Amino acid sequence: MCGNNMSAPLPAIVPAARKATAAVIFLHGLGDTGHGWSEALAGIKSPHVKYICPHAPVMPVSLNMNMAMPSWFDIIGLSPDSQEDEVGIKQAAENVKALIDQEVKNGIPSNRIILGGFSQGGALSLYTALTTQQKLAGVVALSCWLPLRASFPQGPISGVNREIAVLQCHGDCDPLVPLMFGSLTVEKLKSMINPANVTFRTYSGMMHSSCIEEMMDVKQFIDKHLPPVD
After folding, report:
1. Average pLDDT rounded to a whole number, residues 17-23
2. Over 60: is that where the pLDDT of 222 sits?
3. 112 pLDDT exceeds 80?
């Protein structure tokens, strides 16, 4: 059990078509891998951006009767008052910060990196962006929620990302992570960071998934916040 961090294979990567001057790190949802999202991002890619889709380690998940599956942290329940895996969430955020550091070592400054994710991955990307001292270009949070929300102070955060741009998206027919979670999350975000920088988009009829319209919104957001530098 203790070798979790070794069990995750190398990320699925969509390389930049020319020299990478920006990066998107995108975290998949519970039970998934990075491959599907790397294919989705390849469909909207920009030539100067590298897309990194890591795979979560395999661990038992309480919500799914302790079955082992790819998961960034344990999920105990899906209601707003469910107990949360605080230790696991904080450890997962440290692992994401290490991925960001790796890209900085590769020559891409952190303010040219967008962090994103779907469902559990989106939750982790929001938590990481709000707690890291790495200045990021933006966050893409799809069909998700803000974990450990009670651990954040009332009012604006003091970190480097209090002006960060956030694109939050949600389907209005999501049976797993209800739209209400998205609405509550966006309200909390607007109290913590500059509300003018938070965009919330909903998609009619969309369940716990993605759609072409959403991917186009994601592409627009990435292109706006990671423009070519040369």
Report:
1. 96
2. yes
3. yes
Provide the Cα torsion 71, 120, 89, 23; round to 10°.
100
Beta bridge partners of 116: 26, 140
d(CA 106, CA 88): 27
Q: What is the mean pLDDT of the chain?
A: 94
Contact status, residue 140 vs residue 170, Cβ threshold 8 Å? no
Could you confirm whether 174 is annotated as catalytic?
A: yes
Given the residues 38, 110, 119, 210, select the one marked as catalytic: 119
- 195 vs 1, more confident: 195
Mean pLDDT for the stretch of residues 73-96: 94
Instruction: Answer yes or no: 208 catalytic.
Output: yes
pLDDT at 114: 98
Check 46, 151, 208, 209 and give the catalytic one: 208
- Given 32, 74, 85, 174, which residue is catalytic? 174
Per-residue confidence (pLDDT) for residue 162, from 0 to 100? 93
- The reply to whether 119 belongs to the active site is yes
CATH architecture of the domain with range 12-225: 3-Layer(aba) Sandwich (3.40)
